[in-house]
Amino acid sequence: MIRIIAIKEIKSLLREKRCWVVAIVLLLLFATALVTSAVNQKQLNKARAEAQQLSRIEWLGQSPKNPHSAAHFGNFAFRLKTPLSLFDKGLDTYTGSQVFLEPHKQDDFKFSEAEDADALVRFGELTPAFILQTILPLLIIFLSFAAVSKEREDNTLRLLVGNGTPMPKIVAGKVLGNWALISGLIILFSLMAVLFIPAKSNGDTINRFACILLSYIVYAGIVTTISVVVSAYSKTSRASLMKLLSLWMLAVIIVPKVSSNIGGTLHATPSQFEYANLVQHDVENGLDGHDPSDKRREDLLRVTLKKFNVDTITKLPVNFDAIAMMESEKYTTEVYRKRIAEVRNIFTKQNNISLLASFINPYQAVQYCSMALSGTDYAHFIHFQDKAEDYRLYFVNTMNDFMAKHTKSGDWRTKFGTETYKMVEPFEYTAPSLIWSIRHQPVAFISLFVWLVLSLLFIQSIKRINIA
Amino acid sequence: MSTIKTIIIYEWLQLKRSRTLWLLTLIFSVISIYAAWYGRSEVKEQQRKIALLQDSVAVKMNVLSRELLQHDSTAWEYDPLYKTVFYNRPDGIAALAFGQRDLHKFAIEISEGTYYYNKYATGYSNKTLSGEITNPQKQLAGHLDLSFVIVFLLPLYFILLSYNILSAEKEEGTLPLLAVQAVSTRKIFFAKLFVRWLITTMLAILLLLTAALITGAVTDARIFLFIAATMLYSVVWAGVVSLVVSFKKASGFNALFLISTWLVFGMLLPAAFNAFLTAKYPAINKIALASAVQKANVEVFGIPRIAVADSFYAMHPQYNNLPGDTLPGGWYNPRWIRATHAVLDNKVQRVETPYLRVLEDRIRTAGKFNYCSPALLMQSILTGAAASDHKQIYAFDTASWHYFKTWNSYLDDRIFFKNNRFTKADFDNLPVYTFKPVVDYRQVVFSLLVLLATGLVLLAVSLLRLSAPF
Fold first, then answer.
1. Residue B107 above 70 pLDDT?
2. CB distance B282–A238 less than 8 Å?
3. How many angstroms separate the CA of residue B61 from the nearest CA in chain A?
4. Are the C-beta atoms of B109 and B84 separated by less than 8 Å?
5. Which residues of B touch A125 (CB under 8 A)?
6. Is residue A109 within 8 angstroms of chain B, CB to CB?
7. Which range, of A149-153, A224-228, B283-287, averages the lowest pLDDT?
8. Contacts of A263 in chain B (CB under 8 A)
9. How far apart are CA A358 and CA A379, in angstroms?
10. Among the partner residues A126, A276, A381, nearest to B272 by beta-carbon distance
11. Residue of chain A nearest B296, judged by CA positions
12. Which of B39, B265, B328, B429 yields a CA-CA distance of 20 to 30 A from A230?
């Protein structure tokens, strides 16, 4: 019976002009979003890849210097956009795109796209994900708000129930019919999107894309169920439409902002000034507050003298200044890691409120899933940030180590050239796998699953409905 | 006239009994109060961060002041200790329309150093110039401040109250009864629309004033601009509603069409414009800028000191009081460091200029798009009046650079290049700048007039359309 109702639902929807009009409008919007995202992705990736190469060329081409001074020339790490960022830009607009890597300090990521964008960026960005997360639910509402209420208004609901069809089956059939149609549309959109995914993409990207497709089909199923169930509970189609539009506004406009704003208000972010002061304090006084930098240096000198079995710094076969700088670099990196972990912990607490809101709002659930699968969420940004920091420590210490081994203490004048700079491998970044992405965002995937189960329960709850 | 008055009174009495009106009003009010509270907390947080920076600098400066009472300072004793804080302090009005304030720096330390290297490359030695720590997830979600409530939710409130003004009468079979009255259906429609506009506007003004009380903006005259803008924005939406109603379709159609219109103005058009601007002005210029800064930094610190001296004295001949000065000395020669910083800034400023021109072009183009959507125009009015828009952000940026130059010029005159001693009197006369946002009232008033004209045109068109019999 469910199948018969579903097929009937599909046939009646396909006969309706509004269904075609809305689908075509949506298709055009999706295509526009896809093309503009693809163009933007291509432009930025080309510029960033070129800049990364240029940074390397400039690193190798710098004039001969002592290795530590050469390290001060610095390197840039540019974050390339992931292949699926054309589908969902996620946080890319708000996270910086590049970081300058230099000795002694960890710099901030700079130049987010939002910095140069105007107020327009706050109205939303035209991406395929925006269309599927925000506009598609409206299409579903437009198509299914009268799915059951119209039958009630036309007195055909009594006939259906009178034939012995239980209400849950009627609703399930209608949900299935609408869902099948919407899923077809999503698959059509996805096929369009596949054409724009960069040709060099690997199997992981394809798997990610398949998961994104699945997530949106599940999301569409959840929204369809809610729409049809609300329609079943509403006396008139007008009431059903009003209720559903109100729910859409709450889910898409109000709740995400409120949950995020509450998170920010409850867990204040330290200012750059406070953060820098804490780092400076730790570097000067030690991570435990009782290990000042002078004392650390003295201890290191004692250990080094003992290691080389000499009694003065001048007798050392290595450059102690460089050894001290290597140790200092390791120490400051520890300090930065400790302090940045605190900031990230605050962000996690802030974001947890939005994440938990995904259990009351499927829009937020699919938003988090989509960003994670597209590689544009906060976890992916942190992953890149950590790799860039690892590279900073690597190249600075490679230079310091060379200086330690090839010069004597106090020698800052001996210069080395390109051959020495070549010892530093270029920065290369490999994005994490799909499994990693899911593991780092389990709550969103669980909440989407919970919503799927809830949808089935909603359909079952229709048993006790008044059909008059 | 008395008939119209009677219609208005009875319409109000009927609406008063509607549960929908009270429910919507309750939801709208709760969200507005929350928005005001949120705006206030954001402003307070920025104010706290500014105060923290000011206190820290004040403590250090007090120590220096006391030392200067004992003896004058010289260039060779100098370490970039003389500092001040330049800030763009948000006020109560900013709490109502927070705009782009979370995306940009709002307080910086001004001291001797290189401005552009700190700004574009690293933030080296300056703890604030490189920007604030921000949670990107929070930035993506955006603010639920009062401007958001007015721009997005006010039209929805009005639409939900008015989408079925006539269609409901038709659907319930009471329209023929209206048609036989002495007053035309058109007049009845506009009387009903007026009641709803009045309810919406009065509620919005009441909530605006409450929010102003919460945020401390009630004494700020700009609140009248907010009120005027809100009234005119409601006129535009009254025009949109009346135009849609003039097509005499069913309630369902009206609701769908109006929500779609709201979606187009509030989301799709801005998103499409943003996509266009992103494609036309891709964020790639800064990449080249950062690279140029890095190169300039290496160049200026790598070249012989005499070359730095030549460049610097060519820029500032008034300081060339030591002919043949090669800025000698050890690594820490304050004159050399100061000259190098100045030369570096000069180099980078030249690279920055074309980038800024592109940015200005983008802002100008975006400004033109505002006139294509009432939601965008309203947002620009509110953030413009609250000095939270992009123009103010760049004005602060420019002012920071000018203050930085003035500060350093003052120090150059007294510490670095005239071999004067820095006295307590010099300390007391260190330049003090306060950033005062300049609201472009002409632009705001023009935008208000555009809103008014749009609303009136829409109402006039619907008036003509509704003259045909139902």
1. yes
2. no
3. 17
4. yes
5. 271, 274-275
6. no
7. B283-287
8. 138
9. 17
10. A126
11. A73
12. B265
- Using a 10 angstrom Cβ sphere, with 0-12 exposed, 13-18 middle and 19 or more buried, the burial of residue B66 is exposed
Residues 6 or more apart whose CB falls under 8 angstroms from that of A160 comprise A151, A170
Assign A394 to helix, strand or coil. Answer: helix
Contact between residue B290 and residue A76 where contact means Cβ atoms under 8 Å apart: yes
A155: left (phi over 0), alpha (psi -120 to 50) or beta: left
Cβ of A258 within 8 Å of Cβ of B144? The answer is: yes
Indicate the DSSP class of residue A123.
Answer: G
pLDDT digits (tens, 9 = 90+) for B327-343: 666 666 778 888 889 99
Q: How far apart are CA A87 and CA A190, in angstroms?
A: 10
DSSP state letters, A347-370? HHHHHHHHHHHTTT-HHHHHHHHH
- Residue A265: both structure tokens together: 């208000």
Q: What share of chain A is helix, strand, coil (3-state, %, to 5)?
A: 75, 5, 25
Sign of CA dihedral A208, A197, A87, A388: positive
Neighbouring residues of A413: CB distance < 8 A, sequence distance ≥ 6: A66
What residue in B sits closest to A97 (Cα-Cα)?
A: B287
Interface of A with B in 142-161 (CB under 8 A): 142, 146
Interface of A with B in 354-383 (CB under 8 A): 354, 378, 381
Structural tokens at position B241: 């509603």
From the CA of B222, how many Å to the nearest CA of chain A?
20
Of A181-185, A290-294, A376-380, the poorest mean pLDDT is in: A290-294
Domain count, chain A: 1
**Which of B259, B291, B380 has its CB closest to that of A54?**
B291
Q: Of B127, B160, B295, which has the smallest distance from its Cβ to A273's Cβ?
A: B127
- A100, A120, A135 ranked by CB distance to B121: nearest: A100
Residue type (1 letter), A161: V
C-alpha angle with apex B87: B81 to B90, nearest 5 degrees?
A: 155
- Which alpha helices (DSSP H) does A255-377 contain, by range? 255-266, 272-285, 293-308, 320-357, 362-374
Give the residue carrying structure tokens 């074309």.
B354
Query: For residue A198, what pLDDT band results from cuts at 50, 70 and 90?
Result: confident
pLDDT (tens digit, 9 = 90+) per residue, B140-194?
988 899 999 999 999 999 998 998 888 887 777 777 777 777 778 888 889 999 9
DSSP string, B317-372: GGG--STT----SSS--HHHHHHHHHHHHHHHHHHHHHHHHHHHHHHHHHHHHGGG
Amino acid at B354: P
Cβ count near B242 (within 10 Å) = 25
Check A116 against B359: CB less than 8 A apart. yes
Tokens 């930065």 map to which residue?
A336
Q: Which domain holds residue A215?
A: 2-464
Q: Which residue of B has its CA nearest to A347?
A: B135
Give ipTM to 2 decimals. Answer: 0.88
Cβ–Cβ below 8 Å for A63 and B375: no
Give the nearest partner residue to B136 out of A259, A272, A378, using CB atoms: A378
As a dihedral over the C-alpha atoms of residue A225, residue A230, residue A233, residue A239, rounded to 10 degrees, the angle is -150
CB atoms within 10 A of CB A64: 13
Q: How far is A276 from chain B (nearest CA, A)?
A: 6
Closest alpha carbon within chain B to A348: B135
Quick one: average pLDDT of A401-427?
88
Structure tokens at B121: 């490359």
Chain B touched by A421 (CB under 8 Å): no
* A343 with B274: Cβ contact below 8 A: no
Contacts of B156 in chain A (CB under 8 A): 249
Alpha-carbon separation of residue B401 from A437, B56, B75, B118, B415 (angstroms): 43, 22, 23, 12, 20
A359 vs A355: CA distance, rounded Å: 8
Q: What is the pLDDT of residues B205-219, one digit of tens each?
A: 999 999 999 999 989
**CB-CB: which of A48, A108, A249 is closest to B131?**
A108
